[in-house]
């Protein structure tokens, strides 16, 4: 979907400079930076990335596309597992030839070095092809996510992109080839069946422990579960949205009761536990398997 026009594109399409000025005066276009104009309703994330001098990528691009992205730690979350806040960090893909950047909130000011803006050097043709949408191409966006985030968080974004069909399984080898060798196995562990980022993260971290983890198995008398560990431990995961759905609460508790009458054991974890208290999750799983 187009969010931006460049002045050069409009002139090439036969628009005059006078027509462009009139569109700006009438609010049909907004000046973002020199030579780049935005259409009404363009998301703020994309405007800020364009103002800096590039296009949204990594977590910023993923959020703009509606993919799963890591939530910020709640104020009372214990600092058991390192988790950097990403919602206030702007990831921008820029042309390798770009030398001048601007403040994301005031294009008249130069960009000062800050951890709040993460710049990703990108081939010029890739950025040029993405100016209209304001978002880096999916494989570029995912490459930058893997370079900037913990592996399990980047994998969760990749799973979300697979699930929503922004990329295909056939694209995974090409993405892996762009990354350092240590990250290639992570990419190839992607599974587009994942319903949520915490499901991906749990699956990945449990497999790192050497455990066998099945995704969405359909168990007799119980139905489909999130994960089955070592063929006998059901792991169910509750996302942020789960708390607002009383029907889902009752349905899940019924499934837990049914599971308790079978040969399976069942554990249920919230998104907070998975993201911010992983050692407790890991210990609970290992204890349940040892029982």
TrEMBL record:
InterPro entries to which the protein is assigned, alphabetical: AbiEi_N, Restrct_endonuc-II-like
Top-level taxon of origin: Bacteria
Chain segments annotated as coiled-coil in the UniProt record: none
Domain AbiEi antitoxin N-terminal: residue ranges: 6-40
Protein name: Putative AbiEi antitoxin of type IV toxin-antitoxin system
Record organism: Amnibacterium kyonggiense
């Amino acid at each position: 979907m187009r969010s931006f026009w460049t002045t050069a594109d409009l002139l090439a399409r036969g628009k005059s400079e006078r027509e462009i000025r009139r569109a700006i005066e009438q609010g049909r276009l907004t000046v973002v930076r020199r030579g780049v104009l935005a259409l009404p309703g363009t998301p703020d994330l994309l405007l800020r990335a364009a103002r800096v001098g590039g296009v949204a990528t990594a977590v910023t691009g993923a959020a703009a596309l509606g993919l799963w992205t890591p939530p910020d730690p709640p104020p009372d979350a214990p600092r058991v597992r390192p988790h950097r806040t990403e919602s206030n960090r702007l990831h921008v893909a820029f042309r390798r030839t770009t030398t001048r950047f601007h403040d994301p909130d005031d294009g008249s000011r130069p960009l000062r070095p800050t951890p709040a803006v993460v710049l990703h050097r990108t081939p010029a043709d890739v950025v040029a092809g993405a100016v209209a949408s304001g978002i880096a191409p999916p494989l570029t966006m995912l490459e930058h996510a893997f370079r900037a985030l913990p592996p399990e968080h980047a994998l969760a974004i990749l799973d979300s992109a697979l699930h929503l069909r922004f990329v295909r399984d056939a694209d995974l080898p090409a993405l892996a080839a762009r990354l350092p060798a240590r990250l290639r196995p992570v990419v190839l562990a992607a599974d587009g069946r994942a319903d949520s980022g915490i499901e991906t993260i749990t699956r990945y971290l449990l497999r790192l422990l050497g455990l066998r983890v099945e995704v969405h198995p359909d168990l007799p008398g119980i139905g489909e579960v999130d994960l089955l560990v070592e063929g006998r431990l059901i792991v169910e995961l509750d996302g942020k949205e789960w708390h607002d759905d009383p029907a889902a609460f009752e349905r899940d508790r019924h499934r837990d009761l049914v599971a308790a009458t079978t040969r399976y054991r069942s554990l249920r974890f919230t998104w907070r536990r998975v993201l911010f208290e992983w050692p407790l999750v890991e210990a609970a799983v290992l204890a349940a398997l040892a029982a």
